[in-house]
Amino acid sequence: MHQHRTAPSVAQVSLIGLFVAALTTAQLTASKVLAFSLPVSLPVTGAELVLPGAALAYALTFLASDCYTELYGRRAAQVVVNVAFALNFVVLALVWSTIAAPAAENVDAEAFETALGASTNVVLGSLLAYLASQNWDVWLFHRIRDRTGREKLWLRNLASTGTSQVIDTVIFVSVAFAVAPAVLGVGEVLPLEALLALIVGQYLLKLAIAVLDTPVVYAVVALVRSRTETDDAASTA
Predict the structure, then answer these.
(1) pTM score, whole prediction
(2) Where do the domains of the chain lie?
Protein backbone atom coordinates (compact mmCIF):
# COMPACT_ATOMS: atom_id res chain seq x y z
CA MET A 1 0.00 0.00 0.00
CA HIS A 2 1.48 3.32 -1.08
CA GLN A 3 1.54 6.18 1.40
CA HIS A 4 0.50 9.60 0.18
CA ARG A 5 3.26 12.19 0.61
CA THR A 6 2.68 15.90 0.33
CA ALA A 7 5.02 17.58 -2.13
CA PRO A 8 7.15 20.40 -0.71
CA SER A 9 5.64 23.83 -1.28
CA VAL A 10 7.17 26.59 -3.39
CA ALA A 11 7.88 28.55 -0.20
CA GLN A 12 9.66 25.61 1.42
CA VAL A 13 11.86 24.99 -1.61
CA SER A 14 12.54 28.73 -2.00
CA LEU A 15 13.72 29.10 1.60
CA ILE A 16 15.98 26.06 1.30
CA GLY A 17 17.30 27.43 -2.00
CA LEU A 18 18.01 30.83 -0.45
CA PHE A 19 19.79 29.18 2.47
CA VAL A 20 22.00 27.00 0.26
CA ALA A 21 22.73 29.80 -2.23
CA ALA A 22 23.75 32.22 0.53
CA LEU A 23 25.82 29.55 2.27
CA THR A 24 27.66 28.62 -0.93
CA THR A 25 28.33 32.28 -1.72
CA ALA A 26 29.65 32.80 1.81
CA GLN A 27 32.00 29.84 1.45
CA LEU A 28 33.43 31.20 -1.80
CA THR A 29 33.81 34.82 -0.59
CA ALA A 30 35.08 34.21 2.94
CA SER A 31 38.75 34.74 2.16
CA LYS A 32 38.38 38.36 0.98
CA VAL A 33 38.61 40.95 3.77
CA LEU A 34 36.50 44.06 3.16
CA ALA A 35 37.12 47.55 4.54
CA PHE A 36 34.48 50.30 4.72
CA SER A 37 35.19 53.88 5.76
CA LEU A 38 32.96 55.22 8.54
CA PRO A 39 31.86 58.84 9.04
CA VAL A 40 32.84 58.56 12.72
CA SER A 41 35.51 56.71 14.65
CA LEU A 42 34.26 53.82 16.78
CA PRO A 43 35.98 52.05 19.68
CA VAL A 44 38.10 49.07 18.56
CA THR A 45 37.28 49.46 14.84
CA GLY A 46 38.31 53.11 14.50
CA ALA A 47 37.13 54.95 11.37
CA GLU A 48 37.17 51.81 9.25
CA LEU A 49 34.87 48.78 9.41
CA VAL A 50 36.84 45.64 8.54
CA LEU A 51 35.03 42.35 7.96
CA PRO A 52 35.26 39.11 5.95
CA GLY A 53 33.62 39.17 2.54
CA ALA A 54 31.21 36.40 3.53
CA ALA A 55 29.48 38.49 6.21
CA LEU A 56 26.55 39.69 4.10
CA ALA A 57 25.85 36.37 2.39
CA TYR A 58 26.18 34.46 5.64
CA ALA A 59 23.77 36.80 7.41
CA LEU A 60 21.12 35.85 4.84
CA THR A 61 21.36 32.22 5.94
CA PHE A 62 20.01 33.23 9.35
CA LEU A 63 17.08 35.05 7.76
CA ALA A 64 16.23 31.92 5.76
CA SER A 65 16.69 29.54 8.70
CA ASP A 66 14.57 31.68 11.04
CA CYS A 67 11.72 31.79 8.51
CA TYR A 68 12.07 28.05 7.95
CA THR A 69 12.09 27.26 11.67
CA GLU A 70 9.01 29.40 12.30
CA LEU A 71 7.06 27.80 9.46
CA TYR A 72 8.19 24.18 9.52
CA GLY A 73 9.55 23.51 13.00
CA ARG A 74 12.85 22.77 14.71
CA ARG A 75 13.45 19.26 13.37
CA ALA A 76 12.92 20.30 9.73
CA ALA A 77 15.22 23.29 10.17
CA GLN A 78 17.98 21.22 11.76
CA VAL A 79 17.80 18.76 8.86
CA VAL A 80 18.36 21.65 6.43
CA VAL A 81 21.23 23.05 8.52
CA ASN A 82 23.06 19.74 8.88
CA VAL A 83 22.51 18.57 5.29
CA ALA A 84 23.80 21.95 4.10
CA PHE A 85 26.87 21.46 6.32
CA ALA A 86 27.60 18.18 4.54
CA LEU A 87 27.07 19.86 1.17
CA ASN A 88 29.79 22.36 2.08
CA PHE A 89 32.27 19.54 1.48
CA VAL A 90 30.74 18.86 -1.92
CA VAL A 91 31.27 22.52 -2.87
CA LEU A 92 34.85 22.42 -1.62
CA ALA A 93 35.57 19.15 -3.44
CA LEU A 94 34.18 20.51 -6.72
CA VAL A 95 36.17 23.75 -6.42
CA TRP A 96 39.42 22.02 -5.46
CA SER A 97 39.04 19.38 -8.18
CA THR A 98 38.48 22.14 -10.75
CA ILE A 99 41.59 23.92 -9.52
CA ALA A 100 43.60 20.71 -9.77
CA ALA A 101 42.38 19.92 -13.30
CA PRO A 102 44.63 21.06 -16.19
CA ALA A 103 43.75 24.48 -17.59
CA ALA A 104 43.63 25.64 -21.21
CA GLU A 105 46.53 27.77 -22.42
CA ASN A 106 44.56 31.03 -22.41
CA VAL A 107 43.26 30.54 -18.85
CA ASP A 108 45.02 32.17 -15.88
CA ALA A 109 44.97 29.18 -13.52
CA GLU A 110 46.70 31.05 -10.71
CA ALA A 111 44.10 33.83 -10.73
CA PHE A 112 41.32 31.24 -10.69
CA GLU A 113 42.90 29.49 -7.71
CA THR A 114 43.43 32.78 -5.89
CA ALA A 115 39.80 33.79 -6.42
CA LEU A 116 38.07 30.51 -5.52
CA GLY A 117 40.59 28.44 -3.60
CA ALA A 118 39.85 29.36 0.02
CA SER A 119 42.79 28.72 2.32
CA THR A 120 42.71 25.93 4.91
CA ASN A 121 42.41 28.29 7.86
CA VAL A 122 39.40 30.07 6.33
CA VAL A 123 37.69 26.76 5.50
CA LEU A 124 38.19 25.41 9.02
CA GLY A 125 36.99 28.63 10.60
CA SER A 126 33.88 28.90 8.45
CA LEU A 127 32.87 25.23 8.87
CA LEU A 128 33.24 25.23 12.65
CA ALA A 129 31.49 28.58 12.98
CA TYR A 130 28.64 27.44 10.76
CA LEU A 131 28.02 24.18 12.62
CA ALA A 132 27.94 25.82 16.05
CA SER A 133 26.06 29.02 15.23
CA GLN A 134 23.36 27.61 12.94
CA ASN A 135 22.39 24.81 15.32
CA TRP A 136 22.31 27.30 18.20
CA ASP A 137 20.13 29.65 16.12
CA VAL A 138 17.56 26.93 15.39
CA TRP A 139 17.57 25.64 18.99
CA LEU A 140 17.14 29.06 20.65
CA PHE A 141 14.53 30.21 18.13
CA HIS A 142 12.43 27.12 18.83
CA ARG A 143 12.99 27.36 22.61
CA ILE A 144 11.62 30.91 22.65
CA ARG A 145 8.73 29.88 20.40
CA ASP A 146 7.77 27.18 22.91
CA ARG A 147 7.25 29.96 25.46
CA THR A 148 5.66 32.61 23.26
CA GLY A 149 3.68 30.61 20.69
CA ARG A 150 3.12 32.56 17.49
CA GLU A 151 3.49 35.87 19.32
CA LYS A 152 6.71 37.91 19.48
CA LEU A 153 8.32 36.66 16.30
CA TRP A 154 10.56 39.75 16.48
CA LEU A 155 11.97 38.51 19.80
CA ARG A 156 12.75 35.07 18.42
CA ASN A 157 14.39 36.52 15.33
CA LEU A 158 16.54 39.08 17.15
CA ALA A 159 17.52 36.90 20.11
CA SER A 160 18.41 33.81 18.10
CA THR A 161 20.19 35.66 15.30
CA GLY A 162 21.92 38.18 17.59
CA THR A 163 23.42 35.51 19.85
CA SER A 164 24.23 33.04 17.08
CA GLN A 165 26.08 35.78 15.19
CA VAL A 166 28.30 36.30 18.24
CA ILE A 167 29.14 32.59 18.22
CA ASP A 168 29.71 32.58 14.47
CA THR A 169 31.88 35.70 14.42
CA VAL A 170 34.09 34.79 17.37
CA ILE A 171 34.68 31.20 16.19
CA PHE A 172 35.33 32.12 12.56
CA VAL A 173 37.74 35.00 13.20
CA SER A 174 39.55 33.22 16.04
CA VAL A 175 40.03 29.94 14.15
CA ALA A 176 40.73 31.42 10.71
CA PHE A 177 43.11 34.16 11.76
CA ALA A 178 44.64 32.98 15.04
CA VAL A 179 44.17 29.31 16.07
CA ALA A 180 44.63 27.57 12.70
CA PRO A 181 47.64 29.69 11.64
CA ALA A 182 49.31 29.16 15.02
CA VAL A 183 48.58 25.41 15.33
CA LEU A 184 48.69 24.27 11.69
CA GLY A 185 51.01 26.90 10.30
CA VAL A 186 48.54 27.95 7.58
CA GLY A 187 47.92 31.63 7.02
CA GLU A 188 49.06 34.57 9.09
CA VAL A 189 48.41 35.02 12.81
CA LEU A 190 46.81 38.44 13.18
CA PRO A 191 47.61 40.63 16.20
CA LEU A 192 44.96 40.96 18.90
CA GLU A 193 43.95 44.45 17.79
CA ALA A 194 43.26 43.24 14.25
CA LEU A 195 41.31 40.23 15.51
CA LEU A 196 39.10 42.43 17.69
CA ALA A 197 38.53 44.84 14.81
CA LEU A 198 37.43 41.95 12.56
CA ILE A 199 35.11 40.53 15.24
CA VAL A 200 33.50 43.86 16.08
CA GLY A 201 33.22 44.96 12.46
CA GLN A 202 31.65 41.70 11.31
CA TYR A 203 29.25 41.56 14.25
CA LEU A 204 28.06 45.15 13.84
CA LEU A 205 27.11 44.46 10.23
CA LYS A 206 25.38 41.18 11.09
CA LEU A 207 23.48 42.77 13.98
CA ALA A 208 22.30 45.60 11.73
CA ILE A 209 21.10 43.06 9.17
CA ALA A 210 19.29 41.10 11.91
CA VAL A 211 17.41 44.25 12.94
CA LEU A 212 16.62 45.24 9.37
CA ASP A 213 15.52 41.77 8.29
CA THR A 214 12.90 41.42 11.04
CA PRO A 215 10.16 43.03 8.89
CA VAL A 216 11.21 40.72 6.05
CA VAL A 217 10.82 37.67 8.31
CA TYR A 218 7.34 38.89 9.32
CA ALA A 219 6.38 39.45 5.69
CA VAL A 220 7.62 36.04 4.51
CA VAL A 221 5.94 34.16 7.37
CA ALA A 222 2.65 36.05 6.93
CA LEU A 223 2.64 35.47 3.17
CA VAL A 224 3.36 31.76 3.43
CA ARG A 225 0.79 31.23 6.18
CA SER A 226 -1.91 33.13 4.30
CA ARG A 227 -1.32 31.09 1.14
CA THR A 228 -1.22 27.83 3.09
CA GLU A 229 -4.51 28.65 4.83
CA THR A 230 -6.06 29.59 1.48
CA ASP A 231 -4.91 26.32 -0.11
CA ASP A 232 -6.18 24.31 2.89
CA ALA A 233 -9.57 26.02 2.69
CA ALA A 234 -9.79 25.34 -1.04
CA SER A 235 -8.87 21.67 -0.62
CA THR A 236 -11.58 21.12 1.99
CA ALA A 237 -14.26 23.07 0.15
Answers:
(1) 0.83
(2) 10-236
